[in-house]
Every structure is written in structure tokens, then in C-alpha cells.
Amino acid sequence: MRVYFDNAATTPLDPEVLKEMYKVMENHYGNPSSIHSHGREARTLIERSRKTIANLLHTSPAEIFFTSSGTEADNTAIRCSIADHKLTHAITSHIEHHAVLHTLEALEKSGVIKLSFVNIDSKGNVDYDHLETLLKDNERSLVSIMHANNEIGTLSDMSRIGDLCEAYNAIYHCDTVQTMGHYQHDLSKLKTHFLVCAGHKLHGPKGVGFLHINHKIKIKPFIYGGSQERNMRGGTENIYGIVGLAKALELAYAEMEQHQAHIQGLKSYMLGKLTHEIPGVAFNGETDADKSLYTVLNVAFPEMEMADMLLFNLDIAGISASGGSACSSGTDIGSHVLTAIGASSSRPSVRFSFSKYNTKEEVDFTVAKVKELCLVNV
Length: 378
Known about the structure:
seven-stranded mixed sheet, 12 helices, alpha/beta, 378 residues, four-stranded antiparallel sheet
């Protein structure tokens, strides 16, 4: 058996998405910027996809801008809002994705901004009182806090952060790469200025994403070179990817309730089996269903010999997962997330992340293999 439990890294392409993309690849090869019929056909497909996404998110198509990835969307939101609104202060957390952390750290290093980090607890929860203090103490800030952490799954309260940002005239950027297509995002109610998606995290294609830009905020382009995306992003559009992304999000919304129940059931089942089968096992981040992303379970295994070989041995056993340990020194390349929440550097951690295609049989197989490895390495 070969098991894929690394869906937080990327997901398998849905066959229905592939069918939709293949039709476009075969029949619609015109440049969307061309004025002839082939170009107009391609443009129609892009705008239809934009409208599909906007309708699902309860926003205007004019607020959806297609990008090459979630990373590009994050960079666009952060760099352009800081530059165009002359911001000198930003707030984030130590457990953000590197697309956010490295971008903000580079801006601080170059002297553009002062960077503050909101406190988090041992499970990765944001200290909202501290966030309010940081907002009070600094004139208009950029707040960049993700909806769900990609390593440990802990959720932030987007509504609460949005209210705080509104109260203190801050700009709110939220990386929703891990939660888009897994939760309902009603942008008519959320107070985000920027929101991010990557297609390959929801059974869509790689190489495409989008940035939602609230109409209340204006920024200049991050990439120049053409008039695409209503003059907001130069470069010929990835029409196949855009159509695939829209189809993937459409399927995700249509099937969300049943998939959430299925995947949460797998996560709870695996958590229970690991607890029963492996003495001393623990879990990083929140595990309560209302506080944790239901697709992610981060497991801290007991100390063992050859701990750094655990992922490799899982792969040999037929299980694809990811993870690591907290940094034990300044020279270690470990998980910055596990280090930030104070996880033990001596315990190997593995992130198992689930999708609609996973089964209980795969969980049983994985737990049995993990138990064997733990016993061998005691």
C-alpha cells in the first residue's frame, strides 16, 4: 500500500478539474489579450472563472486578481500595501508561512518597516489582547496573520482580528491558503483587505492562485509588463490554471459539508488510535475541532534513536508525510513553527494531512507502521 498524507503540501488533482482543464487546453489556445475570436473566447473563460470564484466568496469579480501562486499573492499584498500606503509598522506572528515571514523580515532589514510579533501560546493561539496593545501603540499598521497554520493547524479568529484592525485603522492581510475551499469565506462580512488562495491546496492545479483585494483599498501592481488583470498584474494569464482553480473551488463548495465530516472523522480516528497504540505520544497545536484545521494533525512522537530518520523510514514503509522537530540550536534547520510554540527539540514530529481521498484503512496501515518504527527505535 502507498499512502499519501501530505495534503497540506499539495493535493491530488481532482479528475473533474483535469477534464475541465483538458477541454480548455485542447480547444482554447488564444491569447486572452488578443481582440480576435480566439482571444475573446479565452478572455470569456477567464472572466467566467473570476465570476464563479467571486460568487462563491460573496464578493465582486472586480476584487479577484489571478496570480501564479499563494506566495506571489502574499508578496503583492504585503509589499504593495506597505509601499503604496507608506506604512512603517507591521504585525505578524512567529508561526506564519515563510512567504509572509521572509517578506516582512526583508522589509525590516532594509529599514522600510518596524516589525512586531504578536504573542502566541504553546498551541499557536494568537493573544488578541497583545495584538490590540500593538495596534494601540503604533500608528496605522499592516497586520498579517494566517487563518490556519500550515504545520500545526491552529486557527485564528478572522472576525476578531478584522474588528481590531477596523478599530485601529489597520490593514488586514490574511493568508487563507490552507483554508480556502475547506471553510466558507463570506467576504461580504469579513473585514479583510487582502485574502490569498493557491489552487493546488484544494485539488486544483499548481502554478495558479488569486489575491482578493477589498475595494476599500488601492494598491499599484507588483508585477509590471502588461495590462492584464485590469492593469494589476503583467503577464499572459494562465488560462488553463485559472479555469481549473475555479472548477476546484466550485467542487469544494458543493461538497464541503460531506468532505469536512469525512476528513474530521479521519483525523479524530487517527488521533485516538495513536493515543491508544503509542504510549507517550502527544500533539502539537490545537486538536479541538472548533480551534483546529480539520485537515492537519501534527504528532509529537516519544524520543527515539535515529529520530531524524523517521520521515525517511515512513517513506520506505509506503507513507508520504512531512514534519521535523523544533530547532535545538541557532544552526539547526528545524521547524520555525514548532520552535515558536516551545515544542521539544528531542521529539520527532510528523504532520499528517488529509484529503477527501483518504480512508480509515490508510489510517490503520499508517498507525501500524508508525508503531513498528517506534518500537524498533526505543
